[in-house]
Structure formats: structure tokens, C-alpha cells
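Reply to thread "Modeling small-molecule complexes from scratch"

Following up on the discussion above, here's a worked example others can learn from. I took a protein sequence and the SMILES for flavin-adenine dinucleotide and predicted the complex. Inputs first:
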Amino acid sequence: MSKTNQHSGASPLLGKYSKNLGFDAEPDTNVGRVLRLDMPGLPHAPSYWAANAGEEVNTSGELETRQETSVAIIGAGFTGLSCAYHLAKKHGIKATVLEANKVGWGASGRNGGFSMICVGKDEYAETLARLDVEEARQHFHVGLDAVKTVEEIVRDNNIEVDRSESGWINIAHKKSRIADLKETKRLLKEGFGYDTEYIGGDELRRTLINSSEGCGALLYPDGFGLNPLKYARGIARAAIEHGATIHDKSPVLSWTKEGGKHILRTPKGVLVADQVVIATAGYTLDAMNPWLSGRILPAISNIAVTRPLTPAEQQQAGLRTTQMVSDTRKLVFYYRLLPDGRLLFGARGGIRDEGNLNHKAYEWLTQRMVDMFPSLASVKVDYFWRGWVCLSRDKNPHMGTTDDPTVHYSIAYMGNGVSLASHFGRLVAGRIAGKPEEPKITLFKDPLPKFELPAFREASLRAAYVYYGIKDRFL
Ligand SMILES: Cc1cc2nc3c(=O)[nH]c(=O)nc-3n(C[C@H](O)[C@H](O)[C@H](O)COP(=O)(O)OP(=O)(O)OC[C@H]3O[C@@H](n4cnc5c(N)ncnc54)[C@H](O)[C@@H]3O)c2cc1C
């Protein structure tokens, strides 16, 4: 019997839905991938974070008048908030953020909270083959700098983020991937001067994670888990303290340019700006800006969170660390123990956000969790939710300026935006202030590429899921 079928239909976990599960709520992104700009101020996804992040940020509320600003930022996730914070704190530029819903409503307030080193989806060997060694080293170190940016923002502003133990454990989900991990360790050391620790299967099971499939692991010492909504709210409060303005419930419905100024219209107000930053990630509508159209591909990620596990249940499940964990699949599973003993378990979730499909996504995800940790079969799942990550044609994140030198974007973190969005937001701020901090490497020089056939983006993602699914399972 295959591992996946072992519990099919039989798990007592299936059917134990609690009121917090996402598919019972109003779909927040409507059918497909359409953001509801006609319903400003939507509630947060029904996440564990939303239930445990305290008060909303005291913003300037809905934009209801005509206002002027030097920099308008569209989107109050990590990208937009970090940009506003760094513009105000480091460069004395008081930007205005327009957010359709609430601070951290998008991916930033509902992700897994893994702040880790990961720049794009290329293997390190592919990066080394594509770029010269020095550039590849700098490319990798952008990821390390990104983790440090998160550390710095949290520390400088005393943001309480429920931090986990440091470190990310990348687990070989089958024996054939052990060699890949050992090769990665060698490349990281010899190519980029970065030390990781290889942990054999026995030690992994004894000291860190004893799942049904861990064969060995690579431990990256940097990075940590956090409550992403607390973090987003913390950056927002710091940005406001330093002089930025945030208007929530203020979707940008139209964007024109008159006399060299950008005119952003919201349902009740107008913002006139010299420069604009697009920080809307997987929630970007193609119509947002003609240059950006056809350049990004949103995809769903799902998260389930169990009820708190007792220390004995954690031991029985084989969960012996609060460090961040993911596996060597291309279609990765990620999980970690939260400070109150709950298991957060996440994975990719397709390309449609519809009530009935979300129900299936829940069943699929929780079944995979039980496959990996069979003793959790009878444990209730308290929360389930979904959100959009943002992918690009070349599998790399992008920060840049469009064909209009006053329009900047930072986008497509490939599902790893906790640290990258925080860092890239800071880099956009430096660029706007005329004090660029980014290294002069391809990552920041090449524009976000367009998909050759934008109309077929979803179909190509579907095909990629099938291809990678087969690779993950059989190779
Ligand atoms: C379920 C899930 C799990 C994830 N887990 C991780 C993880 O563990 N680690 C990690 O590094 N990354 C993770 N990610 C990815 C990460 O969350 C994102 O890369 C990152 O948060 C993107 O931040 P952002 O600020 O660019 O965009 P977002 O946080 O998505 O914010 C975009 C905002 O723009 C607003 N907006 C859109 N259009 C308009 C408009 N016209 N007018 C005004 N506002 C508008 C939206 O309302 C939204 O709030 C995950 C993502 C998801 C969905």
C-alpha cells in the first residue's frame, strides 16, 4: 500500500472541522484569482495568526479626500510596509501606503512565518552554472542579508513576534535526495562560503524530527519562525511612528498620469504622487499597470494548524524542535511547532480559490500531514486557510523600475517573501532615495520577464505541478 493511501478516507481527523476553517468563510479572493477591489476592508483570512495577533494597527483609515505625497505605495504587506518604514526612518521620506483591505491582509499576514534564506527556485548548481562564481555568491548572500533585515526590523522596534528557535532543517524525503543535500552542503561552503550541517537519518529522528519519511537533513543555522501578522503590524506601527501614512480599506481602482503626476483613485479619495511603488505580490491584478501585465503568476499555498499538542504528543509524533522544517520536494511541504505546541503544516494548493475546491485542499493537506506523522490522525485541526504566493517566469524574485522611471515594483518572491519582501522593500526605499543598497548583479538589473503566452500561465503551472509531482515521487 502506498504511503498516501494508508489513511485514505479512514483518518478520524477528516471531518473534524472547526469553525476556523477557511472554506467556511467568505472567499476572500473570490473565484479564481480575482481580488475583490469592490469590497474594501475584507476581514483577515481565518488564520491562527489573525486569532492571535492582538489589535489592528491604528491607521489613518480609509482615504476620503484628495491628498498629495512624494511616494505612494500600493499594498500593505511586508514589501510595502518595509519600503514605507525604511523610506521614513533612513531617508526622511514620508510615503503614503494604500491598502485595499487591512495591514497584512495579503500573503504577509497569513504565511507560515518562515524567515529563511532562499532566493528564487533555482538549485544552487543552476545558479552557479548561470552566473559567474562571484555573482552567484552575491545572489546567495542577498538571502542571508534578507534574514538579517528581518532580525534588524524586529530588534530595532521591539516587535513581539513569537520567535522560534533559529535554523531551518531541509529534510531528504527519500534516500535518493541525501546525495543532493550533501552536494548542496559542498556548494554552499565552496561556492558561497556558507556553513551548513548535514544530519544523518538516525540523528535526525532521535534529536529533531521523526516523520515517516525523513532520511537525512541539512541544517541551515540562520533564519527563524515568527508570527507574520504580528510582524506586519509591528512594521506598520514603526512606519507610522517615523512619519509614514497608511490608509486601509483604500483599494486603488484607477491609475492615470497627468502633468507628470500619478493619480491613484480609491472609492472615496484621490492620491497624487510623484513616484509609485507596486507592492501587491500575488494579489496584483493584470490591469494594475500595463507594464506589469502578463509578468506574474499567482499560485495558492495552504496551511493547517492543529490544536496544541501536549509535550507527550509532540514526542510521540516525533516533533522535537521548534525549528523551521521543509523537505526536498519541488512541491515542498513545510511545517513547524508553534510556541503553544500546535503543529503548523503547509503546502502548495493549486491555482483556484473556490469553496468546494478549498474543502478538497483541506482534506488533501491534512491527509499528507497524517501520512508524515501518523500519531496525529486523531488530533483536531483548529485552523485552515489559504493565500496567494507570487511566481515569476524565471523563478526569481524581482525588484526594479518599470519603463516609467517613477514606477517601481518588488514582487515574485516564489513563496519565500517573509525575509525577501522585508529586504527588497528596504532596497526599493534606497533606490527611491537615490542611495541604492543592492549589489550590482543580474537579480537587480534584469527586468521582471514577461510570460511568453500570458493567457496560458495557469495551464503551464498546472502542467508544472504534474511534472514536479512525478519527479518528487519517483526520482
Ligand atoms: C499560505 C502562504 C504561506 C507562505 N509561507 C511563507 C513562509 O513561511 N515563508 C516565506 O518566506 N514566505 C511565505 N509565503 C510567501 C510570503 O507570504 C509572500 O511572499 C510575502 O508575504 C509577499 O509580501 P508582499 O508585501 O509583497 O505582498 P502581500 O503580503 O501579498 O500584500 C499585497 C497587498 O496588496 C493589496 N492590494 C492588491 N491590490 C491592491 C490595490 N489595487 N489597491 C490597494 N491594495 C491592493 C492586497 O490587499 C494585499 O494586502 C507564503 C505565502 C502564503 C500565501
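What I'd highlight from this example: The CA atoms of residues 83 and 426 lie 5 Å apart. Residues 3-474 form a domain with the FAD/NAD(P)-binding domain fold (CATH 3.50.50.60). Questions welcome below.
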